[in-house]
Amino acid sequence: MQEEHKLHKQYGTAKAWYTLNETIRSSLEGEWREAAQLTLPYVFPVENQAQGSLLPTPFNSIGPAAVNALAAKLLLALLPPTGVFFRLLPDSEIIKDVPVANLKQLDSELAKIERNVIEYINQKAIRVSVFEAIKLLIITGNVMIYKIPKGSFKIFSPYQYVVQRDYVGNMLTSCIKERMSYKALPTKVQEQLAKEHGDTLKHEQKETEVEQVDVYTFIVRESLDKYRVWQEIDGVIIVGTEKTYSEDKLPYITLRWSTVNNEDYGRGIVSQYIGDLRSLEGLTQTIVEGAGIAAMTIFGLKPGSTLQLEDLNNASSGEFVLGDLEREVSTLQVNKGADLQVPLQLIQQLEQRLARAFLMLSGQVRDSERTTAVEVRATAAELETTLGGVFSVLASEFQTPMIRLILQEMNPEVLKFTTPSITTGISAISRERDYGNLNTMLQSIAQLGPDVIAQYLNIPAYLTQIATALGMDPTAIVKSPEQIQQEQQQAMQQQQSMMQQEQQGQMQLAQTKQQGGQ
Fold this sequence. Notes:
Elements: H1 2-11, H2 14-37, H3 62-78, E1 86-90, H4 92-95, H5 100-123, H6 126-140, E2 142-147, E3 153-156, E4 161-165, E5 171-181, H7 187-197, H8 200-208, E6 212-223, E7 226-233, E8 236-237, E9 243-245, E10 252-256, H9 269-272, H10 274-295, E11 299-301, H11 309-314, H12 325-328, E12 329-331, H13 337-357, H14 373-385, H15 388-410, E13 418-422, H16 426-446, H17 450-456, H18 459-469, H19 474-477, H20 481-517
Antiparallel strand pairs: 1-13, 2-3, 2-10, 4-5, 5-6, 6-7, 7-8, 7-9, 11-12
């Protein structure tokens, strides 16, 4: 209890710190909530909204489709379902005196560890949590991820935490607020709360029938590479929750889509295109309501008409009604079809712009029978290059810390002499461009004839570059000049051996004939 009082004396209670910094976050919540309402309303609902409450429904589906499409592309880039998206590279200073044979064995062991990490990601269904985190990043620009020990990730929306950063964007202090049922608390925690407050808290829960408490998780950077973490309920620090982490072992990752100077929170890509989304929503509403009015059918009967309303209402198709229907019955017509063409054209332009911004490839490839695969690949490369900066940020701020946290559980010793290196995202885009350039060069040389290729092209080097561009290990599939020379020597030796055997056979045959003639 003495240590707990020291923490409160130094940093204050978690609730007080959260309440003090909540006002800064509240100024941005309107922007985040509007971005969610135009795309995926459930991602950022009203705080403390009751379960099962109705959420706003947009008039168009472009916003949700755009967010889901971009989130799916980012998920495939960050955590590809096939292959290894990172490499464990040994530190050069440690392995500089290691024999080549031992290095090959080390590479084999590291490759095995890499595959084990991928298997861990698949078993723990980490992609499910990451997909939700990416959608929060796209819409609000902020998300906090907690690595559950020996489990997946827990995702915190921006309305669940507050954060302070230093001048370069590193997390200084953060506090998470979670509402939890009192009955769901561990028995030891309930006993501690009862000891601190007597039965007052539990009695109040029963009286008000509000069986929920606020659980605060306080994260404080005490030095350049040291974080202190603990949890509080009603100003009581829960016993056993106080822990200290180094920066690379901290299980809390606070991400931003884009950084803003001197601000603690980021901005999402939806906020960048909020104008187009607003316009699209308003125009779509106009079209939907206008179409509903235009589709409404109302008949009018001329005053003093000899026709009876009952006869008209009860008439079935093909029946006769006595009277002059053409003169005495009229139909209400809006005649606004031509006026609706203007918003329809603008909607198409807005959809194309949003499709390009959110990498919706189907909205960028021209609709033609002669559309080639080259056009599709070129368009995809152009779109993905626009998010190269995002890939780089997520690789350094999400992928690398995630790999480190998983390795801390599986094999912490490997981090003492290796560094995880991400091989997807912007690196993959660069390799694809290299692959295209290599193929273009080969096609250009091929026009000069096979003799020119044989004379000027270094085939082993070309194959090595192709394997590297495809993310493969060239040493495992491309023969080295030494291997080729050794195989040629073996082939010559086998040929000479066969020739010698053939000559010996001919000599023996000749000798046999001579002996038979004698």
